[in-house]
Every structure is written in structure tokens, then in C-alpha cells.
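Q: I'm writing up a methods section and want to include an example of the input and output format. Could you take the sequence below and give the corresponding predicted C-alpha cells, formatted cleanly so I can copy it straight into the document?
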Amino acid sequence: MHTKTRLKSTIILMITVLCLSVSLAGCGTSTPSTKNPTTQSQNTTPRDEDAGKGKTKTITYDKFFVKHYLFDNANDSPTHVAKVFKEQHDDYTDAYATPDGDVVTTATEKQLEANIKEYQKERKEFGQAFNKDANNKHNGYHFQISKDGRTFSLWCDNKLTRNNYVMTLGSIPKINGGLYYLNGGTGPWDMQINIYNCHSGQLMQQYPWSQSPDYQPQDYGA
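A: Here is the clean output for your methods example:
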């Protein structure tokens, strides 16, 4: 499925803006689409519901995830996030924001399965694009994702391009967060980021993604 979703739109916009800020020629790598998730209030676990359209699942995106991962800007709101989700008729049957700031969506079992498969496909495509980059290959750049999906480790140096920075650190954490909720996760979710120098193996930066610093490759060492 190729339906535009909030997560997809956010990442494409992020990559476009960041690449243009460096140079129009510096963003030659095509960027796969990326979808967005949604959840029910009070940390409710996904459940079957009779919505008159067959069984549906409720997915609740916790307010922390909504604020740090799904907002387009500082003036965004859970209500707007829910509105965008609700308009994605191919992906969800309904969506709304709770007074606490969670975003709750419902999807049929077929939609849920399709959303999970597309998230996994998109994560794989981002990884393949990163690994095929000539500069990344030459410098031995690579990354690992922990089995629980909560830690992202990247080996690089000060030659890491802004496009590749966004392709990995700007997209994969959002995809993993989406998969966490689509697979039944509840409560706050964040991803730990570890950046190592690819030559020395030294840990250069460590932070939760919700507190990501600006793109500063000089901090990754030569």
C-alpha cells in the first residue's frame, strides 16, 4: 500500500528541507515512504471492537510519542495528528485525540497487518539505501538496531552527510516507534541513540531520540 501517512509525510518533508539547506545536489538518494501510528488513551492494550465493519483493533499512541515523534512543529497538537490519521481511510477506520494528549486509532485486522508490513519494508529500504551509499561503504559506516527495537547504534565519522543522517536518525526511530504501538505496545516510547566513531570505536554521542541534538558531524570524530 502506498497511502500517504503522517509519518511518511513528515520524514519526506524533513529530508527535503534538510537536503535543500545543504544543496539541491546533495540529496540524490531516493527516500522510501514512511507511515505513522496512533494509540488509545489510558495505556489501553489493542482490543477487538464491533465497529459495524467487522473486527477492528485499537492502537493508542502515547502522548509522549505523539509530542516528540509525530508533531510537525512546536505548534502542532494531538487533535491535528488525529485528524490526519482519520483522513487515512486506507490505513485506519477512525482516530481521535484524548484530553490527556494520546492519539487513538482503530484499524481492521487487515489494515493493521498491512501497516506493519509496510513499516518493516520501509525500514529495510532505508537501511539498504544507507548501505549502498558509496561514501558510507568507503568509510565503513554501519548501524545496528537492538532486538527490542529501542536502541539505535551508528558507526560513522565527521564525513557523514546530512542526507544519510536524516535517512537513519530521522526515520528509523519513528518507524520503530510506530511498530511498537502497532504490535500492541502501550505507554511512553523513546529510542536510545549511540553514535560511535567508525575508526576508533569510541562512543561519541549518546542520547534519547526525543532529545536529539542538531546535525553536527564534527562531533563524531575524524
